[in-house]
Write a structure and sequence with these properties.
The complex is a heterodimer of chains A (about 120) and B (about 110). Chain A is mainly beta and about 120 residues long. In chain A, about 0% of the residues lie in helices and about 50% in strands. In chain A, the strands form three sheets. In chain A, strands 2, 5, 6, 10, 11 and 12 form a six-stranded mixed sheet that branches. Chain A has a four-stranded antiparallel sheet with strand order 3-9-8-7, with no helix packed on it. Chain B contains no helices and eleven strands. Classes of the chains: A mainly beta (about 120), B mainly beta (about 110).
Chain lengths: ~120, ~110
């Protein structure tokens, strides 16, 4: 069965600093997708970034980048130049390839950005 | 407006009552999902659907029923609500390749 592990319940970072949120995954499927979502205090789930298992390069979206280390089965999210608005819960998720697009989520990391 | 909408946003119900959470999407996405979010568990999949009239169980389906007679609607019914079903429920949809897009969630309290 597929599993996502986020070992950091909470992280603190100062504004303008970079922060890395950890995510490890477990799957026997050679083809999979990895996602990060942000959930601010308002509650909505916001898609941030996607990495396919066959992608040669690490995904980047603005200040977000995904540090994909396939051999270590890790997909850490790096947020550069943190902003106060980055304070939120962050979820790592994996899509299996049964063809039904389901996502399996980790338990999340709460990030707090301080001035 | 285009998007995915859930209703109601908040619901309080009593133990044993039947309650239905509604989900409507305007993109004609094939895939739709119901997740519940609980502290310490992240989001767990309740049911999903690949198309109209095609549904299947997820990780935590007990006590829930879904239907999908039309592509755009995917209601979730709690047949006899229990306190353990107090949670935030998210509906989501996706096309064949894209990420899941989530609704705003329904906060359900069972008393």
């Amino acid at each position: 069965a597929q599993k996502i592990t986020q070992t950091q319940p909470g992280m603190f970072v100062q504004e303008k600093e970079a922060v890395t949120l950890d995510c490890t995954y477990d799957t026997s499927d050679p083809s999979y997708g990895l996602f990060w979502y942000k959930q601010p205090s308002s509650g909505e789930m916001i898609f941030l970034i996607y990495q396919g298992s066959y992608d040669q390069q690490n995904a980047t979206e603005g200040r977000y980048s995904l540090n994909f280390q396939k051999a270590r089965k890790s997909a850490n999210l790096v947020i550069s130049a943190s902003q106060l608005g980055d304070s939120a819960m962050y979820f790592c998720a994996m899509r299996d390839h049964t063809g039904f697009q389901k996502l399996v989520f980790g338990t999340g990391t709460r990030l707090l950005v301080s001035p | 407006d285009a998007g995915i909408t859930q209703s109601p946003r908040y619901k309080i119900t009593e133990t044993g009552r039947q309650v239905t959470l509604m989900c409507h999407q305007t993109w004609s996405h094939s895939y739709m999902f119901w997740y519940r979010q609980d502290l310490g568990h992240g989001l767990r999949l309740i049911y999903y659907s690949a198309a109209a009239d095609i549904t299947d169980k997820g990780e935590v389906p007990d006590g829930y029923v879904v239907s999908r007679s039309k592509t755009e609607n995917f209601p979730l019914t709690l047949e006899s609500a229990t306190r353990s079903q107090t949670s935030v429920y998210f509906c989501a949809s996706s096309d064949r390749q894209g990420a899941l897009t989530f609704g705003s969630g329904t906060r359900l309290t069972v008393v």
